Amino acid sequence: MKKWLLLxxxxxxxxxxxxxxxxxxxxxxxxxxxxxxxxxxxxFGEAIKVDDCFADAWNNLGTVYFEQQRYxxxxxxxxxxxxxxxxxxxxLFNHANTSxxxxxxxxxxxxxxxxxxxxxxxxxxxxxxGLVYTKMREFDKALYAFDKALTLDANNxxxxxxxxxxxxxxxxxxxxxxxxxxAAEIKPDEPNIYNTLALLETDNGNYAEALKQVxxxxxxxxxxPYFLNNRGFIYLSMNEIEKAEQDINDSIGLxxxxxxxxxxKGVLYLMRKDYKSAERLLKQALDMDPFVDKIYFxxxxxxxxxxxPGLACVSFKKSEALGDKxxxxxxxxxxxx
Length: 337
Fold this sequence. Notes:
With about 325 residues, this protein is mainly alpha-helical.
């Protein structure tokens, strides 16, 4: 997620209050740019000592915490920036991004709506809105938001790929493929294009083609945890368990917050008939991100094999409601008893 960091230059000399504020802000920004979070926090804190309602410092202090994935603290500081300056659009956007990370999607949408009322021609805001709606599985609204972003910035590959990804989630595979191929013509070195194509081919059972596409993504972005995890799932689908386990473990090592990797590890344990471990990992994935694809089906299988048919049927019902279409006739029959 992108963030706005207010970069202000020194505009005054001497020891005036404004000069002190700008001096501390500039030093904090430079430290933040260099990844020195402790030093950045110190300088922003010194600015706040000079003026306890200096919104720029509160905003940038929030970004210090955001960069460290300490989202609860980030949101507190963005709140203070907005309280001091209610029309502070940079802080509102940062607040929306942080709410997104905290899975507080309605709060994120509220922030974005406030920005749109003032700046209705900001493509990045519509793009972020599309990301939020995607997580909420409001796919029609997500497409509308991405369309708005593309109207304002037609050649943005991120916008195009996310638009195509929503088509994939809607199971409009032909549309998704066509959009991704057009994006590849514009920017053939964008790895997310090939990663999404790999997801699409996996869903269609074309595992050799899926593997080919994800390998393209990994050539362009080696050791990218999401791509490694997706390759691991393709290997699972091909019943190449050892290769799958290596990729999934590598993905978790690189990004321990990736719920999809925990789902895939849960699937791996299902295949190994270690159902207790599978249930634990699938629950962990669900707690981390309820959006994870087909999570309720796999969790239902873990419950069923752990002797919890009631919980299994609850999960299967949720899976069907989400359109996974993975239940067999026997599983449906078992839940009707």
